[in-house]
Amino acid sequence: MSINVLIVDDSLSACRVLSRHFLLLDVDKVEFCRDARSAIRTLSKYSDDYQIVVVDLHMPEVDGIEFLMRLSKMEFKGGIIIASGMESRIVEAASQLVEASKLRLLGALMKPVTTEQLRVCVERYRLMAFQGNGVRHKGLMSIDEIRRAINSNKIIPYYQAQVDIASGKIKGFEVLCRLQQGTRLQLITPDKFIDVAECNNALNSLTTKLLNNAIPEWALISQFESCKQCHLSINLTPKQLNQSGWHTRLMQYCEQNLLSPSRLTVEITENQVLDKQRQHSTISQLRMNRIGVAIDDFGTGYTNLSQLCTLPISELKLDRSLVHGIHKDPVSQTILKSMQAISGKLGIHLVAEGVEDIHDLNYLEQIEDISLQGYLICRPKPYSELVRWLKARERLVQA
């Protein structure tokens, strides 16, 4: 699939930085326009030549909002990425405007933008194109393959530990989904099937199967001395939160498996805006029943500080893009310290995801009141491997 990108930003340095990010990704061509008028002229003639348009909001003469409205009238078929240094409320308002139009929003990002954030947006475009033309993108599972895996119970729970930085104790485990395709031993990771399952109304069935397999294993994991106070985290999307009954369903799982609700946490992915009354109600109902609620991948999606203040969130997980290279990145260090102060005042537990570099680990060890998750701490493991890891860890503690 050919992907050409057009960047619309009056800042030459911003255009160059964004171009460098995109060239690290699997795109074919990156061009830029320094003003919206020339971009409109270009797209009027060659709109089919560009699959992704990146737009700044604050530009002279024709600003980003007006530019987006003109693209909507042109019925531009590609994906839109908003990349702006303006305050989050303006960026959020612009993203809602795009979603209400005929345009397809891939992401609303605050500058400075990272390569990883753009990678997510590019993958969203690939998925949109895959769904739009019925052609399966290389690497993605088809919905028929996903349904066969669900019906034949090929849903394998994997577990990744979170460790408290101060004490070194295990705080909890995130349960991750793997699919076994056919009779092959190789397991498929969520990036190859989650979005396809959600777009085809199969994600609830997938989540239910995962819970059915994970909860009994979790009961056995909890018997380890180091895990008796740990929590188990499961993932739900904003779209799932918008459906009624999830808090009741999770309470039933807890009752049936003698699991205290306070030891269960729901992680909400940031791939969509949390702006529906039903979503807010579900979050409140989960917390009223002592089930934890975490915002996952914070820093790459839509959740803003005002939502952190108003929603009863119990945990905040900083995305790996903010953690990777933090030992040498003053901007990421400032963001971490700010989030540490905010989360402390709000009583929100802070988790740093994607800890994979020893230098980053050494830096994070100096930060108080934070838990770590990543390959350097513990790789995702199926039940049998996790049991071996826990036994080895307990032997080290006893030695």
UniProtKB/TrEMBL annotation:
UniProt xrefs under InterPro entries: CheY-like_superfamily, Cyclic-di-GMP_PDE-like, EAL_dom, EAL_sf, Sig_transdc_resp-reg_receiver
Pfam assignment, any one: EAL
Domain EAL positions: 139-394
Keyword presence, Phosphoprotein: yes
Response regulatory domain boundaries: 4-126
CDD domains cross-referenced by the UniProt entry: EAL (cd01948)
Transmembrane segments: none
GO biological process, one term: phosphorelay signal transduction system
Record keywords: Phosphoprotein
MF (Gene Ontology): cyclic-guanylate-specific phosphodiesterase activity
Modified residues (4-aspartylphosphate): 56
Protein name, UniProt field: Response regulator receiver modulated diguanylate phosphodiesterase
Species whose genome carries this gene: Shewanella loihica (strain ATCC BAA-1088 / PV-4)
